[in-house]
Amino acid sequence: MMPRRKPIIAANWKMYKTTDEGKKFTEGFSLDSTLAQEVEVVICPPFTAIPTIGKALKGKEIKWGAQNLYPAVEGAFTGEISPQMLKDLGCTYVIIGHSERRQIMGETDDFIRKKVIAAFAYDLLPIFCVGETLEHRKGDQTEDVCRIQILRGLEGIKSEDICRMVIAYEPIWAIGTGVNASPEDAEKTIAFLRQVIIQKWGKEAGEAVRIQYGGSVKPGNIKDLMSCANIDGALVGGASLKADSFYEIVRGAGEEAKNHGV
Fold it and tell me: Which of 2, 41, 89, 210 sees the fewest Cβ atoms within 10 Å?
């Protein structure tokens, strides 16, 4: 039986919260040491709030990260943020390849791959997002689409780095819609993604890499999702904007992890 991995619950605040709003969130959110042992928690605020959030989270056993980066150390890239800058702010993680970046900003698999490489160069851990549209799903193309995104977006990445990173499966049709994939469907797709990793990067990488589910994750469905053998956490959008609902998601994940002896 494949060993269970420590779940990771990451908050993606997207383009929400001023620095003051972010500070108020952190004042009302903390983890006791027992829960922190069961679940790794990450908050990814907007760039403007990272310094404030990082300062507020020190000593709370909660990591912080960014929602994006530009794949260059420095240069004439107006409006962009480098991996070096994120590392300077104490970030541990960075979200890469989110569907909103792919669809709205037109990011390609090759550009996303360059971001992954840049993140690892500065010891930032990617939360690498993949997922299909509703049209893909209706056309029975979910596995093909996600396989291509992984193989192209992670081409050239070493197996030891695959072990350290996080993959987030986010079906695009479930993001912000209030409709989530059933735990059975999410488990099936994530188990498939794990096999893709095993076939390309080896058994050790496939068993070590944590694969989250994202898409309308709420306190009411986290336990069902986390009861699945291959689901290692969640990338949470709207429900992460309120401290109480995000805490309930983390607590639910922690209870399931404890039940499964992670």
Answer: 2
> Per-residue pLDDT tens for 19-74?
999 999 999 898 988 999 999 999 999 999 999 999 999 888 999 999 999 999 99
Alpha-carbon separation of residue 105 from 5, 99, 191 (angstroms)? 33, 9, 29
Look up 98 and say whether it is catalytic: yes
Catalytic option among 40, 98, 132, 187: 98
Lookup result for tokens 């150390």: 73
Domains identified in the chain and CATH numbers: 35-259 (3.20.20.70)
Q: Which residue has the tokens 């989270």?
A: 57
- The reported pTM is 0.95
Strands (E), 108-165: 125-130
- Beta-bridge partner residues of 234: 9, 213
In the annotation, is 170 catalytic?
yes
Among candidates 107, 225, 244, 248, which has minimal Cα distance to 170?
225
Three-state helix/strand/coil letters over 73-92? CCCCCCCCCCHHHHHHCCCC
The catalytic residue among 38, 100, 107, 170 is 170
